Amino acid sequence: YSGGVGTGTVSGAFSRWDMSENALIGQEGAGRLDVSDGGVVSTARDLTIGRRASGTGELNLTDGGQFYVGGNSSIGFEGTGSVTVADGGHFASNATWLGYYSSGQGTLTVRDGGAYTSTDDLYMGLSGQGTLNVSGGGQVTNRIGGLGWYSGSQGEATGSDTGSLWSMSSNLNV
């Protein structure tokens, strides 16, 4: 609830958390999940980070930490959400939307050998604000990309450093 704070950690090569339903980080309060050192988290359905306008959520995948989403991901649904994938971390989802509703603010940072893979769309600023940052050899792979989809939305993508890549198998819609 509003004002609530929750944190979770999944760390170590034999650490695993599998969910049969949706995953939610930051419903109305502040939520944070750190997955590192080969830990694995999966959800059979959707992932939402920063669900309500008052919600803030943070997902950090480092040192080989992995998160697999069986459905779609909304980062900054109505609130603020961020995902950082670094140092061999891996984030995989179907479609991913950064800044879903007009109040939503979502950021995806893939750096230092981290990887994001999607079998579907990656939109920065569906109706809100969305930012993609790729650096330090980070790899982003998806089907269709989009920057600023609906009227009033804002989408931004930045890439830097040799070896950093955003690759799409279809269109980029700007």
Task: Report what the structure shows.
- The protein is built from no helices and 21 strands.
- It is mainly beta.
- The termini are far apart.
- 0% of the residues lie in helices and 56% in strands.
- A 7-stranded parallel beta sheet has the order 1-4-7-10-13-16-19, with no helix packed on it. The protein has a 7-stranded parallel beta sheet with strand order 2-5-8-11-14-17-20, with no helix packed on it. Strands 3-6-9-12-15-18-21 form a 7-stranded parallel beta sheet, with no helix packed on it.
Radius of gyration: 15 Å
Beta-strand segment tally: 21
Alpha-beta classification: mainly beta
The amount of beta strand, in percent, is: over 45%
Number of helices: 0
Indicate the low-confidence ranges by residue numbers.
Answer: none
* Overall outline: globular
Portion of residues within helices: under 10%
Average pLDDT figure: 97
How are helices and strands ordered from N to C? EEEEEEEEEEEEEEEEEEEEE
List keywords for this structure.
7-stranded parallel beta sheet; globular
Per-chain topology:
Layout: E1 5-11, E2 16-19, E3 23-25, E4 30-36, E5 40-43, E6 47-49, E7 56-62, E8 66-69, E9 73-75, E10 80-86, E11 90-93, E12 96-98, E13 105-111, E14 115-118, E15 121-124, E16 129-135, E17 139-142, E18 144-147, E19 154-159, E20 165-168, E21 172-173
Parallel strand pairs: 1-4, 2-5, 3-6, 4-7, 5-8, 6-9, 7-10, 8-11, 9-12, 10-13, 11-14, 12-15, 13-16, 14-17, 15-18, 16-19, 17-20, 18-21
Compact summary:
With 174 residues, the chain is mainly β. Helix content is 0%, strand content 56%.
